[in-house]
Amino acid sequence: MQRLFNLTLVFSLIFFAGNGFAQSKKERNAQLKEDFYAHRDRYKAQYGVYERNQQTLLGLRQYAREMMSTDRRTLEQRNQMLINASRSGITTLNKLGIAMADTLQKTEIDMKNTLERMSLRYNMQSEMMKQSFYFTMIDDTIFPTGLKLKAQNAVLTEKIQQFMHANDVNSELIKQQEAGIAELKGLQESISHEMARLWSINSALTKSANLISLRLDGEKLRYFKNGPKGFSKAYEETFGIPLDELAPMGVEDIETEGFADIPPVQIPDTPVKKQEPDVYDYVEEYAQFPGGVAAMRDYLAKNLKYPEIARDAGIEGKCYLKFVVSNKGEISNVQVMRGIPGCKECDNEAIRVVKSMPNWIPGKNNGKPVNSYFHLPVSFKINP
Prior knowledge:
Mean pLDDT: 79
Low-confidence stretches: 4-22, 243-277
Largest sheet: 3 strands, antiparallel
Number of helices: 9
Shape: elongated
Strand order of the largest sheet: 2-1-5
Number of domains: 2
Distance between the termini: 122 Å
Order of helices and strands: HHHHHHHHEEHEEE
Strand content: 5-15%
Number of strands: 5
């Protein structure tokens, strides 16, 4: 009887102990699941932040590429062209006896320093654009079902450890992302500021070049109206012979589409004067473009190309050409008597378009075709 009691007691203890161990596994399983969901939720939240940061970086990098594709070198060239034009104008005015100081050196230094700062920031931006941020990925699916508690707990424990490690790594990654975003934004703001500085320099240089050009135009008009008597030789070297003196040679102020509309100079009745045996300065009937002035306007409108670099820099003016029209109407010896300051491209374009013209109707003396000079001002003016 005593033996039976002892066996019953042993079985009871085993039963209750078993139930106690089973309950401990369930509690452990519940706790592990709770921890699993908490770490997984943190992982998903971090991934959301990471994705938003990546989108921000993508936008900043796209903007950076657009900034880099904006050719700051073109703006630098525009500014340098304006500096050259202004300096050339100042030199010409000094040559005419009009004292004007060259104050452009400070502007050149300012532009150089601005470009150096921009170059440094562009290089830093380029290096930052090479950075990559890789999120540590974890399979966040729920643990396998159908396993016993012990196996489930083992899987959950491993998953939790993976999430904890990934979350620590990704947390640091997000900090690096956000630091990169802040630095990239700062660089782009700085580059925008420097670009604005370049445009400010451009505006000041354009104003200066226009004022110098206006002063030169004023001197030219004064000389053409009152000269050449009473003016130094420098005026003739700079502006050529006054229009009234050139009128017998057939000067017409040509207007083209997009250029200034200036009425043609009236040509007075002047006797023929022979300067040299082969080419006449003055003729009874001056050479003309086939079809007349209207046809020449059309030809220039279709064929004269405004140099892009001059258009971008806002450079305008007139190029005064002199050339020979042979007794067969052929054009030769095209020369620039006075070009547009700081714009060789404009002078070259004016020469090119005149050389490309078809044969003219030659000038005549006593009804006979002769070789004669022709003076032609060609206007370059930007449409508003």
